[in-house]
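Exam revision sheet. Question 4 asks you to relate a sequence to its structure. Input first:
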Amino acid sequence: MSIFAWKSLKENLAMLEELIKEGQEIRETITFIQPRDGVMRLYSAYRNPNTQRYGAWKNRAIRYLDMKFPGNRCANDFESAINSFEKNHNSPSKLDDAIGVLISCQDMMKTFGGSNSAVKQEISQISTLEKAYKNLTSGSNSANTQEAIDAFHRWYDAAVRFLGKHFEESDTSYKQILDIDAGGNGYVLHSEFNRICSKVHLLMDKVISVGNANNVTIQKNSSSLSNRIFIVHGHDNEMKESVARLISSIGLDPIILSEQPDKGRTIIEKFEDEANVDFAIVLMSDNDDYGAEIGKEDTKPRARQNVILELGYFIGKLGRKNHVCVLKKDNVEVPSDILGIVYKQYDPNNDSWKFALGKELRAAGYDVDLNSI
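Answer key, C-alpha coordinates:
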Protein backbone atom coordinates (compact mmCIF):
# COMPACT_ATOMS: atom_id res chain seq x y z
CA MET A 1 0.00 0.00 0.00
CA SER A 2 1.39 3.42 -0.94
CA ILE A 3 1.93 6.09 1.71
CA PHE A 4 -0.87 8.14 0.09
CA ALA A 5 -3.29 5.21 0.29
CA TRP A 6 -2.32 4.58 3.91
CA LYS A 7 -2.84 8.25 4.77
CA SER A 8 -6.29 8.23 3.16
CA LEU A 9 -7.22 5.02 4.97
CA LYS A 10 -6.16 6.53 8.30
CA GLU A 11 -8.25 9.65 7.59
CA ASN A 12 -11.33 7.55 6.75
CA LEU A 13 -10.91 5.43 9.87
CA ALA A 14 -10.51 8.61 11.92
CA MET A 15 -13.74 9.99 10.46
CA LEU A 16 -15.62 6.83 11.43
CA GLU A 17 -14.06 6.96 14.89
CA GLU A 18 -15.29 10.55 15.24
CA LEU A 19 -18.82 9.57 14.19
CA ILE A 20 -18.83 6.64 16.61
CA LYS A 21 -17.59 8.82 19.49
CA GLU A 22 -20.17 11.54 18.83
CA GLY A 23 -22.95 8.95 18.60
CA GLN A 24 -21.92 7.56 21.97
CA GLU A 25 -21.87 11.07 23.46
CA ILE A 26 -25.40 11.71 22.17
CA ARG A 27 -26.50 8.39 23.60
CA GLU A 28 -25.21 9.35 27.06
CA THR A 29 -27.43 12.47 27.10
CA ILE A 30 -30.68 10.54 26.51
CA THR A 31 -32.83 10.30 29.63
CA PHE A 32 -35.87 8.25 30.57
CA ILE A 33 -39.20 10.11 30.75
CA GLN A 34 -41.11 9.07 33.84
CA PRO A 35 -44.85 8.53 33.25
CA ARG A 36 -47.25 10.76 35.11
CA ASP A 37 -48.68 9.49 38.37
CA GLY A 38 -51.59 7.16 37.77
CA VAL A 39 -50.88 6.92 34.05
CA MET A 40 -50.08 3.51 32.60
CA ARG A 41 -47.83 3.69 29.54
CA LEU A 42 -47.43 0.72 27.22
CA TYR A 43 -43.99 1.79 26.06
CA SER A 44 -40.84 3.40 27.42
CA ALA A 45 -40.16 6.96 26.26
CA TYR A 46 -36.89 8.86 26.34
CA ARG A 47 -35.84 12.47 25.88
CA ASN A 48 -33.15 13.46 23.42
CA PRO A 49 -32.17 16.93 24.70
CA ASN A 50 -30.13 18.09 21.72
CA THR A 51 -32.09 17.26 18.59
CA GLN A 52 -30.07 19.71 16.47
CA ARG A 53 -26.77 17.99 17.24
CA TYR A 54 -28.39 14.59 16.74
CA GLY A 55 -29.84 15.60 13.35
CA ALA A 56 -26.49 16.95 12.13
CA TRP A 57 -24.69 13.79 13.30
CA LYS A 58 -27.26 11.51 11.65
CA ASN A 59 -27.12 13.30 8.28
CA ARG A 60 -23.33 13.50 8.33
CA ALA A 61 -23.07 9.77 9.01
CA ILE A 62 -25.53 8.85 6.26
CA ARG A 63 -23.73 10.99 3.68
CA TYR A 64 -20.33 9.63 4.69
CA LEU A 65 -21.43 5.99 4.53
CA ASP A 66 -23.14 6.53 1.20
CA MET A 67 -20.01 8.07 -0.32
CA LYS A 68 -17.43 5.69 1.15
CA PHE A 69 -19.37 2.43 0.80
CA PRO A 70 -21.11 2.70 -2.61
CA GLY A 71 -23.37 -0.20 -3.43
CA ASN A 72 -22.91 -1.49 0.12
CA ARG A 73 -25.46 -2.11 2.85
CA CYS A 74 -23.74 0.20 5.36
CA ALA A 75 -25.78 3.36 4.68
CA ASN A 76 -29.05 1.40 4.41
CA ASP A 77 -28.37 -0.51 7.62
CA PHE A 78 -27.55 2.72 9.45
CA GLU A 79 -30.70 4.47 8.19
CA SER A 80 -32.80 1.46 9.19
CA ALA A 81 -31.34 1.49 12.72
CA ILE A 82 -31.86 5.26 13.01
CA ASN A 83 -35.48 4.95 11.87
CA SER A 84 -36.02 2.27 14.51
CA PHE A 85 -34.48 4.56 17.16
CA GLU A 86 -36.83 7.40 16.26
CA LYS A 87 -39.92 5.18 16.01
CA ASN A 88 -39.17 3.64 19.41
CA HIS A 89 -39.29 6.96 21.26
CA ASN A 90 -35.52 7.56 21.31
CA SER A 91 -34.71 4.21 22.91
CA PRO A 92 -30.95 4.16 23.75
CA SER A 93 -30.70 0.47 22.82
CA LYS A 94 -31.85 1.31 19.29
CA LEU A 95 -29.26 4.05 19.03
CA ASP A 96 -26.70 1.45 20.11
CA ASP A 97 -27.74 -0.54 17.01
CA ALA A 98 -26.98 2.45 14.78
CA ILE A 99 -23.61 3.01 16.45
CA GLY A 100 -22.95 -0.70 16.00
CA VAL A 101 -23.42 -0.29 12.25
CA LEU A 102 -20.73 2.41 12.26
CA ILE A 103 -18.39 0.13 14.19
CA SER A 104 -18.97 -2.75 11.74
CA CYS A 105 -18.32 -0.42 8.79
CA GLN A 106 -15.11 0.67 10.46
CA ASP A 107 -14.09 -2.98 10.79
CA MET A 108 -14.91 -3.51 7.11
CA MET A 109 -12.72 -0.58 6.10
CA LYS A 110 -9.85 -1.96 8.18
CA THR A 111 -10.28 -5.34 6.49
CA PHE A 112 -10.28 -3.89 2.99
CA GLY A 113 -7.36 -1.64 3.84
CA GLY A 114 -5.25 -4.59 4.83
CA SER A 115 -6.30 -7.18 2.25
CA ASN A 116 -6.52 -5.37 -1.07
CA SER A 117 -3.71 -7.43 -2.54
CA ALA A 118 -5.74 -10.58 -1.89
CA VAL A 119 -8.85 -9.01 -3.48
CA LYS A 120 -6.79 -7.93 -6.46
CA GLN A 121 -5.36 -11.41 -6.86
CA GLU A 122 -8.79 -13.09 -6.70
CA ILE A 123 -10.28 -10.73 -9.29
CA SER A 124 -7.29 -11.32 -11.55
CA GLN A 125 -7.75 -15.09 -11.27
CA ILE A 126 -11.46 -14.83 -12.13
CA SER A 127 -10.65 -12.65 -15.14
CA THR A 128 -8.07 -15.19 -16.32
CA LEU A 129 -10.59 -18.04 -16.01
CA GLU A 130 -13.19 -15.97 -17.87
CA LYS A 131 -10.75 -15.26 -20.70
CA ALA A 132 -9.87 -18.96 -20.95
CA TYR A 133 -13.55 -19.91 -21.24
CA LYS A 134 -14.17 -17.26 -23.90
CA ASN A 135 -11.23 -18.55 -25.92
CA LEU A 136 -12.57 -22.10 -25.76
CA THR A 137 -16.07 -21.08 -26.88
CA SER A 138 -15.09 -18.72 -29.68
CA GLY A 139 -15.78 -21.35 -32.36
CA SER A 140 -19.29 -22.16 -33.61
CA ASN A 141 -19.45 -25.70 -32.14
CA SER A 142 -16.96 -25.49 -29.28
CA ALA A 143 -19.27 -24.56 -26.38
CA ASN A 144 -20.41 -28.16 -25.81
CA THR A 145 -16.97 -29.73 -25.50
CA GLN A 146 -15.97 -31.21 -22.16
CA GLU A 147 -13.02 -28.84 -22.02
CA ALA A 148 -15.31 -25.82 -22.38
CA ILE A 149 -17.78 -27.17 -19.81
CA ASP A 150 -14.97 -27.68 -17.29
CA ALA A 151 -13.66 -24.18 -18.00
CA PHE A 152 -17.10 -22.68 -17.35
CA HIS A 153 -17.35 -24.40 -13.97
CA ARG A 154 -13.87 -23.24 -12.96
CA TRP A 155 -14.84 -19.64 -13.76
CA TYR A 156 -18.31 -19.88 -12.22
CA ASP A 157 -17.14 -21.58 -8.99
CA ALA A 158 -14.36 -19.01 -8.49
CA ALA A 159 -16.74 -16.09 -9.11
CA VAL A 160 -19.40 -17.43 -6.71
CA ARG A 161 -16.82 -18.09 -3.97
CA PHE A 162 -15.43 -14.58 -4.30
CA LEU A 163 -18.79 -12.79 -4.44
CA GLY A 164 -20.11 -14.87 -1.55
CA LYS A 165 -17.56 -13.16 0.72
CA HIS A 166 -19.01 -9.73 -0.02
CA PHE A 167 -22.72 -10.16 -0.83
CA GLU A 168 -25.75 -11.88 0.62
CA GLU A 169 -28.44 -13.72 -1.34
CA SER A 170 -30.78 -10.76 -0.75
CA ASP A 171 -28.72 -8.86 -3.34
CA THR A 172 -30.71 -9.25 -6.57
CA SER A 173 -27.75 -9.54 -8.94
CA TYR A 174 -25.93 -12.03 -6.73
CA LYS A 175 -29.06 -14.17 -6.37
CA GLN A 176 -29.51 -14.21 -10.16
CA ILE A 177 -25.96 -15.51 -10.47
CA LEU A 178 -26.62 -18.25 -7.89
CA ASP A 179 -29.92 -19.31 -9.49
CA ILE A 180 -28.60 -20.21 -12.96
CA ASP A 181 -28.90 -23.70 -14.46
CA ALA A 182 -25.33 -24.84 -13.86
CA GLY A 183 -26.13 -28.50 -14.60
CA GLY A 184 -26.98 -28.17 -18.28
CA ASN A 185 -24.97 -29.06 -21.36
CA GLY A 186 -22.35 -26.77 -22.84
CA TYR A 187 -24.84 -24.77 -24.90
CA VAL A 188 -27.00 -24.12 -21.82
CA LEU A 189 -23.94 -23.07 -19.85
CA HIS A 190 -22.80 -20.73 -22.62
CA SER A 191 -26.23 -19.09 -22.65
CA GLU A 192 -26.13 -18.69 -18.87
CA PHE A 193 -22.59 -17.28 -19.10
CA ASN A 194 -23.76 -14.58 -21.52
CA ARG A 195 -26.67 -13.78 -19.22
CA ILE A 196 -24.74 -13.39 -15.96
CA CYS A 197 -21.27 -12.29 -17.05
CA SER A 198 -22.12 -8.58 -16.87
CA LYS A 199 -23.66 -9.11 -13.41
CA VAL A 200 -20.44 -10.73 -12.20
CA HIS A 201 -18.50 -7.73 -13.51
CA LEU A 202 -20.92 -5.36 -11.78
CA LEU A 203 -20.56 -6.99 -8.39
CA MET A 204 -16.78 -7.19 -8.67
CA ASP A 205 -16.78 -3.47 -9.50
CA LYS A 206 -18.81 -2.83 -6.35
CA VAL A 207 -16.16 -4.61 -4.30
CA ILE A 208 -13.51 -2.58 -6.11
CA SER A 209 -15.37 0.66 -5.36
CA VAL A 210 -15.02 0.04 -1.62
CA GLY A 211 -11.26 -0.27 -2.06
CA ASN A 212 -11.22 2.86 -4.21
CA ALA A 213 -13.08 4.70 -1.45
CA ASN A 214 -9.86 4.37 0.54
CA ASN A 215 -7.74 5.37 -2.48
CA VAL A 216 -6.34 1.84 -2.55
CA THR A 217 -5.53 0.83 -6.11
CA ILE A 218 -7.05 -2.40 -7.38
CA GLN A 219 -6.92 -3.32 -11.08
CA LYS A 220 -10.39 -2.93 -12.54
CA ASN A 221 -11.87 -5.67 -14.69
CA SER A 222 -11.39 -4.80 -18.35
CA SER A 223 -15.05 -5.50 -19.08
CA SER A 224 -16.35 -2.54 -17.07
CA LEU A 225 -19.76 -0.91 -17.25
CA SER A 226 -20.65 0.96 -20.40
CA ASN A 227 -20.61 4.76 -20.11
CA ARG A 228 -23.75 4.88 -22.27
CA ILE A 229 -26.84 5.78 -20.23
CA PHE A 230 -30.12 5.37 -22.13
CA ILE A 231 -32.75 8.05 -21.47
CA VAL A 232 -36.35 7.02 -22.15
CA HIS A 233 -38.48 10.15 -22.49
CA GLY A 234 -41.80 11.59 -23.58
CA HIS A 235 -42.73 15.12 -24.68
CA ASP A 236 -41.17 17.01 -21.77
CA ASN A 237 -38.06 18.43 -23.46
CA GLU A 238 -36.99 20.46 -20.41
CA MET A 239 -36.98 17.33 -18.25
CA LYS A 240 -35.09 15.37 -20.93
CA GLU A 241 -32.45 18.08 -21.38
CA SER A 242 -31.94 18.52 -17.63
CA VAL A 243 -31.27 14.81 -17.17
CA ALA A 244 -29.03 14.63 -20.24
CA ARG A 245 -26.96 17.60 -19.02
CA LEU A 246 -26.50 15.97 -15.62
CA ILE A 247 -25.37 12.68 -17.19
CA SER A 248 -22.88 14.53 -19.40
CA SER A 249 -21.58 16.61 -16.47
CA ILE A 250 -20.56 13.48 -14.52
CA GLY A 251 -18.62 12.05 -17.47
CA LEU A 252 -21.21 9.62 -18.85
CA ASP A 253 -22.79 9.51 -22.31
CA PRO A 254 -26.56 10.17 -22.47
CA ILE A 255 -28.25 8.14 -25.22
CA ILE A 256 -31.41 9.77 -26.60
CA LEU A 257 -32.86 7.63 -29.38
CA SER A 258 -34.05 10.50 -31.58
CA GLU A 259 -30.55 12.01 -31.60
CA GLN A 260 -28.85 8.85 -32.87
CA PRO A 261 -28.30 8.39 -36.67
CA ASP A 262 -30.82 6.09 -38.39
CA LYS A 263 -28.26 4.20 -40.55
CA GLY A 264 -31.11 2.73 -42.58
CA ARG A 265 -32.54 0.94 -39.54
CA THR A 266 -36.19 0.57 -38.64
CA ILE A 267 -37.29 2.13 -35.32
CA ILE A 268 -37.22 -1.16 -33.45
CA GLU A 269 -33.83 -2.10 -34.95
CA LYS A 270 -32.44 1.28 -33.99
CA PHE A 271 -33.83 0.96 -30.47
CA GLU A 272 -32.42 -2.54 -29.94
CA ASP A 273 -28.98 -1.46 -31.17
CA GLU A 274 -28.82 1.72 -29.08
CA ALA A 275 -30.29 0.01 -26.00
CA ASN A 276 -27.05 -1.93 -25.54
CA VAL A 277 -26.39 -0.19 -22.20
CA ASP A 278 -25.94 -1.09 -18.54
CA PHE A 279 -28.23 1.59 -17.08
CA ALA A 280 -31.49 3.23 -18.20
CA ILE A 281 -33.28 6.31 -16.89
CA VAL A 282 -37.01 6.43 -17.62
CA LEU A 283 -38.74 9.83 -17.50
CA MET A 284 -42.43 9.99 -16.60
CA SER A 285 -43.70 13.50 -17.18
CA ASP A 286 -47.16 14.98 -16.67
CA ASN A 287 -47.69 16.44 -20.13
CA ASP A 288 -47.68 13.26 -22.22
CA ASP A 289 -51.06 11.57 -21.78
CA TYR A 290 -54.15 11.36 -19.57
CA GLY A 291 -56.28 8.37 -18.73
CA ALA A 292 -58.83 6.94 -16.31
CA GLU A 293 -59.80 3.48 -15.17
CA ILE A 294 -62.81 1.96 -16.90
CA GLY A 295 -65.98 3.14 -15.20
CA LYS A 296 -64.30 6.18 -13.64
CA GLU A 297 -64.34 9.74 -14.88
CA ASP A 298 -61.34 11.25 -13.11
CA THR A 299 -58.31 11.27 -15.38
CA LYS A 300 -54.70 11.28 -14.25
CA PRO A 301 -51.45 12.22 -16.02
CA ARG A 302 -49.74 9.18 -17.52
CA ALA A 303 -46.50 8.50 -19.33
CA ARG A 304 -46.63 7.87 -23.07
CA GLN A 305 -47.14 4.30 -24.27
CA ASN A 306 -43.64 4.16 -25.75
CA VAL A 307 -42.19 5.12 -22.34
CA ILE A 308 -44.02 2.25 -20.61
CA LEU A 309 -43.02 -0.16 -23.40
CA GLU A 310 -39.33 0.79 -23.16
CA LEU A 311 -39.48 0.67 -19.36
CA GLY A 312 -40.66 -2.94 -19.59
CA TYR A 313 -37.93 -3.71 -22.10
CA PHE A 314 -35.17 -2.45 -19.83
CA ILE A 315 -36.61 -4.21 -16.76
CA GLY A 316 -36.39 -7.46 -18.72
CA LYS A 317 -32.94 -6.71 -20.13
CA LEU A 318 -31.17 -5.16 -17.13
CA GLY A 319 -33.14 -6.45 -14.17
CA ARG A 320 -35.71 -4.80 -11.95
CA LYS A 321 -33.23 -3.29 -9.46
CA ASN A 322 -29.99 -1.30 -9.60
CA HIS A 323 -29.94 -0.69 -13.37
CA VAL A 324 -33.30 0.94 -14.13
CA CYS A 325 -34.30 4.21 -12.46
CA VAL A 326 -37.57 6.06 -13.03
CA LEU A 327 -37.71 9.83 -12.60
CA LYS A 328 -41.31 10.94 -12.31
CA LYS A 329 -43.15 14.13 -11.66
CA ASP A 330 -45.24 14.16 -8.52
CA ASN A 331 -48.73 13.62 -9.93
CA VAL A 332 -47.99 11.08 -12.68
CA GLU A 333 -49.79 7.75 -12.34
CA VAL A 334 -47.49 4.76 -11.86
CA PRO A 335 -48.42 1.32 -13.26
CA SER A 336 -49.23 -0.86 -10.26
CA ASP A 337 -47.43 -3.99 -11.49
CA ILE A 338 -43.96 -2.36 -11.59
CA LEU A 339 -43.91 -0.74 -8.17
CA GLY A 340 -40.82 -2.75 -7.22
CA ILE A 341 -38.40 -0.66 -9.26
CA VAL A 342 -36.65 2.48 -8.10
CA TYR A 343 -38.69 5.71 -8.41
CA LYS A 344 -37.32 9.16 -7.76
CA GLN A 345 -39.34 12.36 -7.69
CA TYR A 346 -38.37 14.93 -10.31
CA ASP A 347 -38.90 18.58 -9.42
CA PRO A 348 -37.52 21.22 -11.82
CA ASN A 349 -37.34 23.68 -8.91
CA ASN A 350 -35.37 21.38 -6.61
CA ASP A 351 -32.03 19.75 -7.44
CA SER A 352 -32.42 16.92 -4.93
CA TRP A 353 -33.35 14.56 -7.80
CA LYS A 354 -29.83 14.98 -9.17
CA PHE A 355 -28.25 13.70 -5.95
CA ALA A 356 -30.78 10.84 -5.79
CA LEU A 357 -29.97 9.80 -9.37
CA GLY A 358 -26.24 10.03 -8.66
CA LYS A 359 -26.69 7.66 -5.71
CA GLU A 360 -28.47 5.13 -7.93
CA LEU A 361 -25.68 5.28 -10.50
CA ARG A 362 -23.11 4.72 -7.75
CA ALA A 363 -25.12 1.77 -6.41
CA ALA A 364 -25.03 0.29 -9.92
CA GLY A 365 -21.23 0.47 -9.94
CA TYR A 366 -20.56 3.78 -11.71
CA ASP A 367 -17.78 6.00 -10.39
CA VAL A 368 -19.83 9.13 -9.71
CA ASP A 369 -18.51 11.93 -7.52
CA LEU A 370 -21.58 13.04 -5.56
CA ASN A 371 -19.75 16.20 -4.46
CA SER A 372 -19.64 17.39 -8.09
CA ILE A 373 -23.42 17.20 -8.55
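Marking note for examiners. The beta strands are 31-32, 46-47, 228-232, 253-255, 279-284, 289-291, 300-302, 324-328, 342-345.
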